[in-house]
């Protein structure tokens, strides 16, 4: 865990990105990044970190980092679209595309209740995810950037604060599960439930012209067949671990309370170190989504 520390508690929090979701048609989420208050240039880095997995020296990378608010936990296999328009974030975008094989670190910054030193306001970098840019659309103001989560990361060291964050990253993987048959059985059980969830989502859609590709289907397809740059291979988890993140996507007509539960499940899954435990938990989560969607489909059929 890395800490960003200001020399005075009067200095406002480190500038993070907050994603505001908008609905397109009835399901597709797009995000617009709105930077918070202006950042002080007097920041210094105070590093305190620990690893939940074995340090893989060949897998260490230095990459630019985009900081986000705590509600923006990003997970492997997921996608989202950012609207970057501030000059320093556009500079980060150009550097990521030109020097870093379209990859950067997506990190969540949270205030730490007790500062590292007396009179110091501190912020922890948590829930890191290696992100890959899949598409960039230049706009009159800024750019729309579509990204994909590849794998979990730990921020080992901050190497740059201005004009944007840059840090040394190491992979964070689950512990190896010894019973391959148990893992395979859990994956197959999950896929069966996910097939039902996907079918119900399509039924719940109103227009036949809407795309059949949901975030769930997109995530599942990438987990099974996605490709990455060779330098990112060590950061991408095994297929079973990747699949264990697939159910944690927003489903059609999700309520505010359901999205809050989704966020908590994402946080738990990003901290977990057991693939089999995550598979079991997200299967129950997917079963709940299946029941909720089935009820909504039944209600929809009564309205026609």
Automatic annotation (TrEMBL):
Check the record and name the PANTHER family matching this protein.
ATP-DEPENDENT PROTEASE LA (LON) DOMAIN PROTEIN
In its UniProt entry, what is this protein called? Lon N-terminal domain-containing protein
Q: Where is the Lon N-terminal domain?
A: 63-290
> Which intervals of the chain form a coiled coil?
none
Spell out the PROSITE patterns in the cross-references. Answer: LON_N (PS51787)
InterPro entries in the record: Lon_prtase_N (IPR003111), Lon_prtase_N_sf (IPR046336), PUA-like_sf (IPR015947)
Can you tell which superkingdom this protein's organism belongs to?
Answer: Eukaryota
